Amino acid sequence: MVDKNNFSFSDLEQWLNDRRVTEIECLVPDLTGVARGKILPREKFTEDRGMRLPEAIVAIGVTGEFPDEGPYYDVIHATDRDMHLRPDPSTVRIVPWAVDPTAQVIHDCFDRDGNMIPYAPRSVLRRICDLYAAEGWNPVVAPELEFYLVERNSDPNTPLRPPKGRSGRAETSRQAYSIDAVNEFDPLFEDIYAYCEQMELNVDTLIHEVGAGQMEINFFHDHPLGLADEVFFFKRTIRETALRHEMYATFMAKPMANEPGSAMHVHQSVVHSGSGQNIFSNPDGTPSKEFYWYIGGLQKYTPAAMALFAPYVNSYRRLARSMSAPINIQWGTDNRTVGIRSPVATPSARRIENRVIGADANPYVALAATLACGYLGMKNRIEPSPECKGDAYLSEYQLPRSLSEALGWLSDEKDLHDVLGKEFITVYSEIKEIEHDEFMKVISPWEREHLLLHV
């Protein structure tokens, strides 16, 4: 595997030459996590080494709509100006399912004066990583990403169902950690692992999660920006692979009514940039003040960050007491009922797991937000509440119950605005308001079932 962390443009050109690449997919992750951009011939990519797109392209909601007016246009120019895209050589990957030799490269977004576009997801995560670097800290993360395999379904009015495996039967019961249940989809996962190997994605273990057709993939720990890129690539890869096996892969937080939701649990720690020592542990191996302050920051700011961790109306269906998902910001050691878990680990590996984040979250935005909460906790020396040693599901809800409520909490938390960037919060919030308004125009089957003739 080639180490691309310090790739220059000349290294990139050599990499493309070695693989006889003829086309480049120039990608930009938008606020939803969708891959926007252009496909260029190799010669055009080499000549231009970048491209232009309208500023608003990274600021589109999941419905594809833009606001008609309002604060959105205090940030994004109403004349629809160009932003200038620069490839990040370290992100180059082969496109394993392409017919012709094709590479994909993630780009960063700049204005015409060379300033980073502040509301682009990658820019927001870079901003947070820079704040850590200024303190002599290096954040380290490891996501655990859950998803469902479902039967192909072209009718959005039809409920989703688990797909049929090699046996010709669909799962009808919970199969947590079942090896045989994973083996039902061996042909699919063989392709996924082959594609991940060709793309040099650092995926670790694969397990069957609790739900019917629900899987989880774990990533090795690394720098947040590189891992956000890998999650972005992985989501794209697994959706493509599932289609080739006549099924869908979905990262919806709650795709099926009677099954658990899907999360993106994020393990996080911080090391000294120079010594590489984990700052969550004292020299004698005990938890440090920074460890507790980081937890305190997550407890204080996570409720306001929920619109970033749970970005859609569907996200809040997952966060229910009976669905194995957190309902509060209690913390505890080796306790999976809490929102903030400290796994049992050696002092050098001491870390904190944020279990609130949904699988539907944009990886760049989610990692930026959880690191921002911890950063504020350490900077402001916020003490956590006492450790929860019992069942946190017996405690009260401490998180917003809907996207609308979450956006209100985010609007009121100015500390998060300061560290994540006011421009980003403005654009993100306006887009989410549009999505919520669109959802409220839809009349659900539940309303027709229970209200049509009864009220």
From TrEMBL:
Q: Which SMART domains match?
A: Gln-synt_C
Alphabetically sorted, this entry's keywords are: ATP-binding, Ligase, Magnesium, Nucleotide-binding
User: Which SUPFAM superfamilies does the entry mention?
Assistant: Glutamine synthetase, N-terminal domain (SSF54368), Glutamine synthetase/guanido kinase (SSF55931)
Gene3D superfamilies per UniProt: Glutamine synthetase, N-terminal domain (3.10.20.70), Glutamine synthetase/guanido kinase, catalytic domain (3.30.590.10)
EC class of the enzyme, as a word:
ligase
The family note in this entry says: Belongs to the glutamine synthetase family.
Q: Which PROSITE patterns match?
A: GLNA_ATP, GS_BETA_GRASP, GS_CATALYTIC
Q: Which GO terms describe its molecular function?
A: ligase activity
Q: What is this protein called?
A: Glutamine synthetase family protein
**Which residue numbers delimit the GS catalytic domain?**
121-455
Which part of the chain is the GS beta-grasp domain? 19-114
User: Required co-factor?
Assistant: Mg(2+)
The keyword rRNA-binding appears for this protein: no
Record-listed E.C. numbers: 6.3.1.-
Highest taxon above the source species: Bacteria
